[in-house]
Structure formats: structure tokens, C-alpha cells
Amino acid sequence: MRLHALATHFMHVVEAVGSADDLALAMAAITAEIGFQYFALTHHVDIVAASGNAIRLHNYPAQWADYYDGNALGVSDPVHRASHVTSAGFCWSRMPFMIPLTAADQRMLALGRDQGIGDGFTVPANVPGEARGSCSFANQAGRPMPDTNLPLAQLAGNFAFEAARRLWSKRGHLPVPQPRVLTDRQRDCLLWVARGKGDWEIAIILGISEETVARHVRDACERYGVNKRTLLVIRALFDGTLTFTDLFRR
Amino acid sequence: MLHVLQSAARPASDAVLRAMFAARKSVFVDLLKWDVPVLDGAYEVDQFDDVHATYLILAGPDDTHLGSARLLPTTRPHILDSFYADLCEDAPPRDADIFEITRFCLDRRLCARERRQVRDTLVSALVDHALATGIAAYSAIAEMGWFQQILAFGWRCMPLGLPRVIDGTMLAALRIEITPETPSLLESGRATAAALRVDRRVAA
User: Could you tell me how many CB contacts below 8 A there are between chain A and chain B?
Assistant: First the structure.
């Protein structure tokens, strides 16, 4: 298909699809057109926990999808992680050069191959302020990667994700995490926890008693509903209460 | 407030323009590491910053720079036809009613929420300017992450060719149609973004 025809088609898909079923049909056709068998459009969240509000549309084999959901891999899937380090599409075979793959990642990829999934191409989709997502195209093991069509797959992925955003936004809101607001002093203590200091050291640095430091950290944990300091630091970094710049600025 | 400036023949003479060129240096040279000329070590100014360029600049009180964009007439040499013609399947768009959006720049001092506000205001200003001056379409070049965001604004976009990796970055060229219905498409785009936003938290 000539690019112009395809571009017009993409625009039509974005503007005209009225339901997830329509989009799935259009995606199946585009996927075949560019030389792939399977597609998966998804927000990178735990799909089961997000209870249907997050984008998720695919034509993967059922047993693969079940394994994926059952293990809540939406957040730790290596394909998703790799798509957080680039904005350009990538072949799955390139992942070891993009992110460290753990033994579990290797097992997951091997399991995918057992289920018949071969190499794929993932287009990252990140709209600031929203959950990250991606559009992947994949083939059965043994089928060749349609290399010359990858630039088309890139465009198709970008437009498909936009079509999905517009559809899913009408389904109701994604769960919004309640903001956890720390006191300034709790945040001061947490900053030093994140920098690896113990209570005694923090007490000296801030000129308060060790017991007070411990209490501030305990209260901060309570506000986030966590019981470990590591989790507290991670959550505070995630929601912007702390930033990496804060941690490394001495 | 919004400034629409037509001529930059003497950039240093105007505080708003000067602040924009400094912000462009900060964003495109210091942050994004683009290999573009820098004037006096402080201002990013290139060969297209001439009397033919139009600037849309959002400035705060005291002329502080918030966001800006440069429009180049496509009937004269511009970036897509001068350097990136390969990004277009056919010849780059060239018409009296098509302008190229370049140097879309959001000030680095803005926080995430302010960036979104300034960005949305600037995008609306681009559409209003087009409708007021008879511009029917914009052309633009975008890195793929930015491309996805441009689609998300809600206006009507057409790829002009296939994306290509150029100097390590994947780029694509696109055409943005401007019609009387574009403002309402932007409204829908904002409603979509509001429904999908996950980082609504109390500002510190």
C-alpha cells in the first residue's frame, strides 16, 4: 500500500473508530498489512488491578494472555521496561542491549516462545501525565521480521495508541492515587533516609533527637500505608515528593 | 500574554525576543544537545531567524519567556525542505498557506503542570493565528516521543513520510490540517487528556 493511502487510513482509524471492537478489527487488518500476525495495544499497568479502565486490546493467543494477566506482568514485562528507555520502536531481539534482563525475564521470553510467540516490534507511547503504554506487533516463532515495514509499524503504533486513548478516555477515569502529603520535617527526614543515612546520623544532621527522626519516618510510612523505608522512598520518588535531583544534590 | 512578532531583523533589540532566543539556547543546545549555532554564548539563533520568520511568544510579566514557536513560510527555504526532505514521501509541502512550525519551546523553569498549561495555550495560539491569517496547514518535524504528543493534542495530523533514524534520533514529518473545526478538536483532545491523567496530585 502506498504511504499516502496508509496515512489516510491511519487518520481514519484515529478519527472514525467508535468502539474497541472496531479498533481491534482495524488493527488486525493493519497488522497483517505490515507483515505481522499479532498486535497488543496496552497501558503499562497491572491490567487486572486497573479493572478495565486501562487501555488493553490484543489478538494474542489466549493461553499467552492468561499467563500474562495471571502473573500481573504489565509492570515488569521486559518489553514494557525497554519501551521506557526509548521513544522509538525496537525489535525484542534488541532488548538485551537496552535494559538488563534478569533470569525471570529470560524465562518469560522463553515461555512466550513456547506459546509460539517469536520476535516482535514495540512502539513506545508516552504522553506526559498519563500511564505509559505501547503498541506491539509480533509473529509466531520462525516467521521472519518484516524489516522493511518497521517504519510503517512505527507510524501504525503511534496512531493506534492515539486511537485507543480517545476510545478509553470515554470509559471513565483511571484510578487516581490519593495524594499523600508529608509534613516538611517528615520530608526532610525522608530525604536523608533516601541518601542512605540512619536515624542517628539524621538526628545529628537535622539537629533533632534520634527518637524524633524515627517518629517522623514512622509517621511518613503511615501516611503512605507502607511498612518499609525502602517502599516509602520509592513511593515518594514516584509521586514527586522527592526527586532524584534532590537525592544527588549535596 | 501572547506576542506575535513578524520580524527579527534585529533580535537583540527586543526583550521578549531576546528572552526567547535565550530560552531556545537553554532547551535546544543545553538540554537537547542540538548542534545549532549559538550567538554570544547565550542565544540560539540560526539562518532561518530572519525577516521572514514569525514568532508566537507567550511571556509572563517582565517579559519572562514561558513558551514560543517559530513559523517559517514554506514558499522559502525552511527546515523540512532544506535538511529533511527525505522524511517526505513526496516533495515537502510548499504553499503560501502552509507554514512550518519549528523551535516549539517550553521554558525549562516551568513545572510539569505549568508546562502543560503553556503548551496548550501555545497550541491554541498557533491554531488561532492560522485561522486569523489564512494558514490552512502546518508542517513539522518531530522526534517520535514528541510525535505521539502532537497526535494527542487532538488536531488532524497526517504523516508526510516514513520515520527515519537521523543522527541517532528517529524523526518523522507531519502535516497538521487547520480548519474552523480545529479549535473544537483541541477541546476534545484536552478532555481526553484530562480523563487519562494519572498524576493529579496536590502541588507542593
Answer: 107
